[in-house]
Amino acid sequence: MACPGFLRRDVMSMMMLNDDHLRRAAPAVFAQAPHDAVSERYGFVPTIQVVNALRDEGWYPVRAQQTNCRDLERVGVARHMIRFRQDPDRQMAVGDSVAELVLTNSHDRSSAYQLDLGLFRLICLNGMVTPVGETGGIRVRHGKNVVDEILEGSVALVGHVPNIQTAMETFRSLSVDRGEAELFAASALELRYGDDWQRQAPIKPENLLEARRREDAQDQTLWGAFNKAQENLLKGGIRGRSRSGRRTRTRPIHSVTEDVRLNRALWRLTERFAKLKGADLAA
């Protein structure tokens, strides 16, 4: 059941980040100049300028994070990510989720501006990144036209929301047995820990399928397997054992780069599983 409109507006107002919130979570958003190592051809446009342009178009920052840096000189220019959502009266529902825009950038040569389409799952307050097309999103090189290109990209990405809705409905229509779900989880662990995941991962595939809420425990579909694996990998905290046999818990993903990479890869993995089960995901 959807939340009443007034309640959704109150929740949204509490979640919207003002500039003070952004500065604490991701100081590089307010960089005044790029890192000294960038070339003279680098066209510097501070991220806050893009943020304000998206705000003017009705997209509001609701989450921000920044890559931890040991090099203090890079703290003010390091890679950062901001998730945007529309106000409740305009939000595009996608099943049990709402559409978001996910902006990543840095001013130290580690990345260009990247804009992706994302989903925010309401039941678990969990954010995803959904690839669009072969490249996964809109990539914009640093230059004087960044703001215009990002705004054009946001319109293009929003046009793909119906395709994401169709994919989600397909995932939800596909039942998976225990063996199939564990095969999916094993593939997800390989995405996270690499080819040698059986030695490197502190947990087994069945652990990755542990449900954090009753609704997910009862979901025996491909969408359910994806959600459990995605949330457990991103949030961590799953009990397991290290290679030495010591009891441990999996670590949450804090890296901006790994967050986006793993989210994209998990969505692609789910698409491949759906196709193996005979689904047609053609746009």
TrEMBL record:
Q: Return the InterPro entries for the record.
A: DUF932
What is the name attached to this protein's record? DUF945 domain-containing protein
Name the species this protein comes from.
Ectothiorhodospira haloalkaliphila
